[in-house]
Amino acid sequence: MTRRTVLRAVGVPLGVAALVAGVGAAAGLWGADPEPPPAVATVSWEGVLTAPTTAPTPADPTPEAPAPAPEPSAPAFDLTRHSTTDPTSPWVVVNKQHPVPAEHVPPDLVDVAPGVQLRADVAPDLAAMVEAAAPAGARLGVLSGYRSYRDQAATRAAIEARRGFEHAERYSARPGFSEHQTGLAVDLGSGTQPGCDLQSCFAQTAEGAWLAEHAWEFGFVVRYTEANTEVTGYAPEGWHLRWVGRDLAAYLHGAGVGSLEEAFGVPGGPVYAGG
Ligand SMILES: [Zn+2]
């Protein structure tokens, strides 16, 4: 006799029978016993069938199947799932101690705005974030994404020429040391206060404030903050977002981890590898 026929026999509708059987099977109540005992369904005064809450006692004294292993509690977040050194990895850590090979070009760049490219995986999360920010009064513009080694060299040289070496060291990576070369980093602008674009006052704009609170929901981290300057080696940049994917971003947010360096135990800081 099968469970289904037992339940039919007591007049239980088939859909409910399947549910009850599913509950029993999911709980591992019958183990490997080929002839499991019937589930004892109960009917409330309203006539609503409820699944049995205790394991049914086997009618015949067959040897007990080994008890199923207890369900593990919520597993710890696996921080080893992706490489932190492969420049194509979503979790690659690029900083002044960990450069990107000069010849590296991301494999799957797509256009996300006029003249701006990012990795294909980043584009939908960026679009969703820009769309979600608008009703909150944050008008995000997409200023800059992937930069080749050569572009970064030009950007850095321009900043150095305009603001001097010390300023450039704090705000602009030397070529080969920029996250922008991975195609996973994006600089966003303020539609409400464009005068604060790429400036420290960006953090106080509607866009900067919204990003600080919500970027993680879309798989991004504000890479350089007031709190992590020592470990990242960069002054705060509320506009520079790094995509790491929603699962890692949510983990970092929930655990209160302030930088990729701290999350993965990767050295960073203000000193360039090789001096
Ligand atoms: Zn940037």
TrEMBL record:
Keywords linked to the UniProt accession: Carboxypeptidase, Hydrolase, Protease
Biased composition (Pro residues): 58-73
Residue span of region Disordered: 51-88
InterPro entries associated with the record: DD-CPase-like, VanY-like_core_dom, VanY/YodJ_core_dom, Zn_M74/Hedgehog-like
Pfam families, A to Z: VanY (PF02557)
Gene Ontology MF term list: serine-type D-Ala-D-Ala carboxypeptidase activity
E.C. number: 3.4.16.4
Annotated D-alanyl-D-alanine carboxypeptidase-like core domain residues: 117-245
Protein name: D-alanyl-D-alanine carboxypeptidase
